């Protein structure tokens, strides 16, 4: 499946909460969660090498419509509600249309 829409997000956890934020974001890969959806082609959680409370998420979706539909669902909204309590401030988002690349895990 091709990636037709994606985004990067940078989230900064409250001091010392980076581990909890990463663990919560990784639940997005569990069965029934957004990252496990057939429409989610890339779901990558990374930490800053210099600040363990800064977390980056890269997502690639089959289409923007699929992303918005899945993200509006109960499972995604439950994760978002928990994330908000861990953050030190507003997250930064950059959306994009992938051109070409590779992801193999």
Describe this structure in words.
The chain is an alpha+beta fold and 105 residues long. It has one domain (5-95): 2-Layer Sandwich (Alpha-Beta Plaits). It has helices at 18-26, 64-71, 74-84, and strands spanning 5-12, 40-47, 54-61, 92-96. It is built from 3 helices and 4 strands, in the order E-H-E-E-H-H-E. Strand 2 and strand 3 form a beta hairpin.
Strand content: 25-35%
Rounded to the nearest angstrom, the radius of gyration is 13 Å
Number of helices: 3
Structural class: alpha+beta
Provide keyphrases for this structure:
105 residues; four-stranded antiparallel sheet; ABM domain-containing protein; ABM_dom; Dimeric_a/b-barrel; alpha+beta; Alpha-Beta Plaits; globular
Tell me briefly what this model is.
It comes from Streptomyces aurantiacus. By secondary structure, this protein is an alpha+beta fold. It has helices spanning 18-26, 64-71, 74-84, and strands at 5-12, 40-47, 54-61, 92-96.
Topology at a glance:
Blueprint: E1 5-12, H1 18-26, E2 40-47, E3 54-61, H2 64-71, H3 74-84, E4 92-96
Antiparallel strand pairs: 1-3, 1-4, 2-3
């Amino acid at each position: 499946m091709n990636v037709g829409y994606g985004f990067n997000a940078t989230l900064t956890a409250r001091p010392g909460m980076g581990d909890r934020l990463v663990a919560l974001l990784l639940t997005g890969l569990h069965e029934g969660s957004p990252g496990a959806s057939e429409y989610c082609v890339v779901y990558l959680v990374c930490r800053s090498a210099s600040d363990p409370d800064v977390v980056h998420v890269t997502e690639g979706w089959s289409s923007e419509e699929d992303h918005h539909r899945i993200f509006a669902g109960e499972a995604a909204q439950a994760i978002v509600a928990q994330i908000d309590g861990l953050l030190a401030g507003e997250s930064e988002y950059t959306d994009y249309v992938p051109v070409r690349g590779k992801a193999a895990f």
